[in-house]
Amino acid sequence: MTERIGQRICIKFCVKLGYTAAETTRLIQKAFKDDPISVTQTKLWHRRFRDGRESAESDARSGRPTTSKTPENIEHIRAAYSKGEKVTMRQLADELGIQKSTVYEIVSGDYGPKRETTKFKEKELQSEDSAKGTGYKEQETCIKFCSNLGHSCAETVQMILGAFKEEALSEEDIETLFNSFRCSKDGGEKESKQDSSEDSDVD
């Protein structure tokens, strides 16, 4: 998932929670202060999601390939499996920015390496989705968004449950993801402070 798509997912999350375009813009700028998408783009996507759009992916532009089965993607997938690398279709999909189902079609069709196709059954698609649940990636992104905004774990749980309703992860899973992001963030801040202290000592 690209950074831009991640921010769009957070905009969609804000729409589900009832935030206005102006409120959403402030939250996006706060959470992604290093590289937020523009105010214009934030408002554009806010309106799209408010009007019922579900996908955070960009629309296909005129002149761009309408398929993800490009020669480059096919070659990349073929190379990964021909080398015997232990890689999942989910990992390849995230790496290439395409749907997991497209990776499956390439692997199991005429495009991928024939000798590897027996390893990748349709049940892999089902098992991964079943294990993580519908919209897992979106919820994971939104939980990190809440953490970056400084919300507490309890607040984040309620926001995720309220936005995703019956598709929401369990409270335990939300708490686990939140704590992993918070620990990662705290660790990064400690390292940053330590580096600053060392620089001061050198001066």
From TrEMBL:
Residue ranges constituting the Mos1 transposase HTH domain according to the UniProt record: 8-52, 142-182
Pfam families in UniProt: HTH_48
Residue ranges, annotated region (Disordered): 48-72, 183-203
Record's compositionally biased regions (Basic and acidic residues): 51-62, 183-196
Source organism, top-level taxon: Eukaryota
Name assigned to this protein: Putative dd34d transposase
Species annotation: Lutzomyia longipalpis
